[in-house]
């Protein structure tokens, strides 16, 4: 699998490993045209899988399964793009149904696996994907999510979406319409320069570390939200924190209880949002993504679940 921060050379090597693995596990030798076609489609399919599942790890697992099915497919397929899209979407839908059951018993808020953006990962999560949008997608049914992503994001014709989802085109249009209404307020609308974003991220880290009420009051909006995903594996807030007053009490209390100071590692872009990687007061690795609007922080997304941070380099 590919890892965040991999160089292009390493990614090519990892791609060859996947190819070799596929050839060894398939009873049907892969022809060159199939390898070439899948390589051309891979980034687009990975983007689809990530948006469907909220996890690069799971998306890559889906693509591995798709490779195997593609290897065994008939050679007379006339529309490889449609065929591969259909396979990946249906595999994702299968995973989403089981994932919903798991999330019903998930401890605390659930957040998508953080993708720290580099030149190599941009094509997996371009500018139109943020944590805010991913959470909005989580509120949709699996079919609504698939219909919206395929039709509105990937420009798949409605008739083809109907084939993929095995639904009537009219029903698919309704699915996409409902989804569109539910996510419209989560689409990215706020642009911020890199220098300003870095300044705000560092200022927030310092203010939260010190429990600086005055500085935090200047940085946060009155209706700020704090989402912390520990997955029951590490200490984290069990619910979402809403409002400036509760947030301030939280940071002041954390400062008083802290034995060690948190450690700032570096600023990064996480799923389209400004953020940073750090170690908390217990030395636990975490990522923090900041939804900044008009120069202030509207939402804070903290991932501490170690299962979701295996790809994050310290």
Automatic annotation (TrEMBL):
Residue ranges constituting the RNA polymerase sigma-70 region domain according to the UniProt record: 42-100
Recorded GO MF terms: DNA binding; sigma factor activity
Highest taxon, organism lineage: Bacteria
Annotated ranges, domain RNA polymerase sigma factor 70 region 4 type: 133-182
UniProt xrefs under InterPro entries: ECF_Sigma-70_Domain, NTF2-like_dom_sf, RNA_pol_sigma70_r2, RNA_pol_sigma70_r4_t2, RNA_pol_sigma_r2, RNA_pol_sigma_r3/r4-like, WH-like_DNA-bd_sf
Gene Ontology biological process terms in this record: DNA-templated transcription initiation
Assembly with partners or alone: Interacts transiently with the RNA polymerase catalytic core formed by RpoA, RpoB, RpoC and RpoZ (2 alpha, 1 beta, 1 beta' and 1 omega subunit) to form the RNA polymerase holoenzyme that can initiate transcription.
Record protein name field: RNA polymerase sigma-70 factor (ECF subfamily)
């Amino acid at each position: 699998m590919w890892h965040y921060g991999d160089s292009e050379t390493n990614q090519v090597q990892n791609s060859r490993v996947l190819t070799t693995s596929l050839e060894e596990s398939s009873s049907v030798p892969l022809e060159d045209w199939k390898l070439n076609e899948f390589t051309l489609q891979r980034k687009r399919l990975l983007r689809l899988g990530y948006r469907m599942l909220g996890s690069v790890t799971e998306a890559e697992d889906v693509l591995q399964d798709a490779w195997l099915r593609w290897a065994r497919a008939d050679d007379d397929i006339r529309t490889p793009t449609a065929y591969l899209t259909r396979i990946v979407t249906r595999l994702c839908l299968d995973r989403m149904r089981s994932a919903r059951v798991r999330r019903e018993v998930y401890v605390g808020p659930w957040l998508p696996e953080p993708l720290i953006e580099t030149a190599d990962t941009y094509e997996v999560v371009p500018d139109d994907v943020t944590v805010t949008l991913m959470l909005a997608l989580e509120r949709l049914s699996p079919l609504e999510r698939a219909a919206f992503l395929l039709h509105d994001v990937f420009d798949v014709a409605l008739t083809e979406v109907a084939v993929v989802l095995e639904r009537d085109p009219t029903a698919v249009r309704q699915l996409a319409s409902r989804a569109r209404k539910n996510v419209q307020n989560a689409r990215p609308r706020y642009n911020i320069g890199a220098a300003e974003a870095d300044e705000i991220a560092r200022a927030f880290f310092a203010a939260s570390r010190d429990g600086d009420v005055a500085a935090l009051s200047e940085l946060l909006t009155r209706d700020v939200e704090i989402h912390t995903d520990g997955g029951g594996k590490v200490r984290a807030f069990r619910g979402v924190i809403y409002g400036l007053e509760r947030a301030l009490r939280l940071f002041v209390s954390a400062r008083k209880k802290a034995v060690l100071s948190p450690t700032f590692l570096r600023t990064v872009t996480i799923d389209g949002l400004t953020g940073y990687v750090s170690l908390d007061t217990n030395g636990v690795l975490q990522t923090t993504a900041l939804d900044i609007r008009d120069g202030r922080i509207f939402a804070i997304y903290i991932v501490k679940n170690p299962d979701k941070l295996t790809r994050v380099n310290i």
